[in-house]
Design brief:
By secondary structure, the chain is of the alpha/beta class. About 40% of the residues lie in helices and about 15% in strands. It contains 18 helices and 15 strands. The strands form 3 sheets. The protein has a 7-stranded parallel β-sheet with strand order 3-2-1-4-5-8-9. Helix 10 runs parallel beside helix 12, helix 10 packs across helix 16 and helix 14 crosses helix 17. The longest helix is centred in the last third of the chain and has 17 residues. The protein is globular and about 65 Å long. The protein starts with a strand and ends with a helix. The structure holds uridine-5'-diphosphate (3 copies). One uridine-5'-diphosphate binds next to helix 1, helix 13 and helix 14. It holds the Pfam family UDPGT.
């Protein structure tokens, strides 16, 4: 019989996107799929995407999960991390919801950011199911996560060597992790503790891209016993009708002439930094499609484009017809697939990195926070792009227009990046050919789900 799988994403588009893709993939392989949707969502992008996803995939069941609001929370805390916390604290509402599903579910896939829920669920008498985690970051960052509960991080050291894993550079570790009281840190640690309780960890990566780390995770030689790490990427886009306006502009541009500039769904930059980016893009003389965000949560975005970019810079951009700036949500995968795109200036969020890898688009990585430096290490090592490490974390220093100009030119004009990225794209495709590394692992997972082992 076809297995019935429930999926539990946490919050933020960087988490929802891979879950929607996984849901569509499992459904296309004859699984019955139920997606739990934590309500209310933090951003408008999440609610919009959920609505369009369920209308395009009527065979996937939606199950709303009303999250209990936090009693007291730091009003200045990151709203997405606060939502992770609210979801985790609402875990007691899940067993009745999950056991009401028909036919009964055989497995639950939890977001790494809500993995700690497994502690209560696995001990619940009404639920006899398998648990998996979907890790929404690189295998490299995940490998650090696995050891976090047992680590005391010292910023005075240069490198961190963990038994059985490739070594880490201390300067790439997100600064909040050095503060044990930080919510980001406490959540990561409790989520990391739950890893050993699940059957497997699926991840949107592929063997060739992170071979050393993936082999290390599955070698049995780490100091912690880990479940199977299951690389099943790159995730394919799900069906999403509708068009985005910037594609029409791209249609008019020559092949590989445009740099796509976007720092993800939730990166708020200062006006000073936005100005330097704009000046840098203009000076580079390259064509550009620049997606701009100035707030973490899209619902509170009120500032007009002109006010963000500055009237004179915006006029210069319009006058020179060298590029366009947009503030709305764009269909990034379609943009990256477009023949006019020749490079991607990105914060190196893991989904963005995988979307570039899948299409062989070279990246200029500007890592801003979280796991992004770990992701950029993977990108750089694989030959998918370049990474100016001295640009610092978000807000650490103002990156000047001349620096941006220089690196954009290098990205777009040095053809070695194009050919190396093309090789990455070919390897990504190979992972999904019949008998390819990811294709095989997905087959094994489905077999395990069918047999309920
Ligand atoms: N994305 C998009 N349009 C936008 C902004 C983001 O399609 O205007 C998508 C992007 O393709 C990716 C996800 O949202 O799938 C963002 O995830 P990522 O891990 O790259 O970064 P985060 O937003 O979590 O920092
Ligand atoms: N798939 C994927 N990533 C890829 C290619 C395929 O996740 O890069 C998945 C896809 O979601 C589906 C299965 O592989 O579950 C088979 O893909 P499909 O037959 O649709 O491939 P297509 O014919 O579209 O290339
Ligand atoms: N993360 C996690 N648990 C948390 C918070 C974050 O496992 O409580 C993971 C998350 O999956 C992400 C990475 O840590 O891939 C870095 O988090 P960040 O907030 O920078 O990324 P985002 O949430 O924007 O994807």
């Amino acid at each position: 019989m076809e297995p019935h799988i429930a999926l539990l994403p946490s919050a933020g588009m960087g988490h929802l996107m891979p879950f929607l893709r996984l849901a569509a993939m499992l459904a296309s392989r004859n699984c019955k799929v139920t997606l739990l949707t934590a309500q209310p969502t933090v951003s408008a992008a999440e609610s919009n995407h959920l609505n369009s996803f369920f209308s395009a995939h009527p065979h996937i069941q939606r199950l709303d999960f009303q999250v209990v609001p936090l009693q007291s929370s730091n009003p200045h805390g990151d709203p997405f991390f606060l939502q992770f916390e609210a979801i985790i604290r609402s875990v007691h509402l899940l067993p009745p919801l999950l056991s009401s599903l028909s036919p009964p579910i055989s497995a639950l896939f939890l977001d790494i950011a809500a993995a700690t829920c497994v502690d209560q669920l696995a001990d619940h008498p009404s639920l006899s199911i398998s648990y998996y985690i979907l890790s929404t970051t690189s295998a490299r960052f995940f490998s650090l996560l696995t050891h976090l509960p047992h680590l005391t991080l010292e910023s005075s050291c240069k490198n961190l060597k963990l038994h059985g894993l490739p070594s880490f550079s201390i300067s790439n570790i997100p600064p909040p992790l050095f503060n044990p009281q930080n919510l980001f840190t406490t959540q990561l640690i409790s989520n990391a503790r739950a890893i050993s309780r699940v059957k497997g960890v699926v991840s949107n990566t592929f063997h060739w891209f992170e071979a050393e780390t993936i082999e290390a995770l599955n070698s049995g030689k780490t100091s912690i016993t880990l479940p199977q790490f299951l690389p099943i990427g790159p995730f394919k886009p799900y069906e999403d009708p509708g068009k985005c306006a910037s594609l029409s502009w791209l249609d008019e541009q020559p092949a590989k002439s445009v740099v796509y500039v976007s720092f993800g769904s939730r990166t708020a930059m200062s006006k000073d930094q936005i100005k330097e980016i704009g000046e840098g893009l203009l000076k580079s003389k390259q064509k550009f499609l620049w997606v701009l965000k100035s707030v973490i949560v899209d619902k509170v975005e009120e500032t007009e484009l002109q006010e963000l970019v500055g009237r004179s810079l915006l006029e210069k951009i319009e006058e020179k017809k060298q590029g366009i700036v947009v503030k709305e949500w764009v269909k990034q995968e379609e943009i990256l697939t477009h023949h006019a795109i020749g490079g991607f200036f990105s914060h190196c969020g893991w989904n963005s990195a995988m979307e570039a890898a899948q299409r062989g688009v070279p990246m200029l990585a500007w890592t801003l926070n979280g796991d992004q430096r770990f992701n950029a290490e993977v990108v750089e090592k694989a030959g998918l792009g370049l990474w100016p490490k001295h640009w610092g974390w978000l807000g650490e220093r103002l990156v000047k227009s001349e620096e941006i100009e220089e690196k954009i030119e290098e990205l777009m004009q040095d053809h070695k990046f194009r050919s190396m990225a093309q090789k990455v794209g070919e390897e990504a495709k190979r992972a999904w050919e019949i008998g390819g590394t990811s294709e095989k692992v997905v087959g094994q997972i489905i077999e395990m789900l069918k047999l309920k082992v």
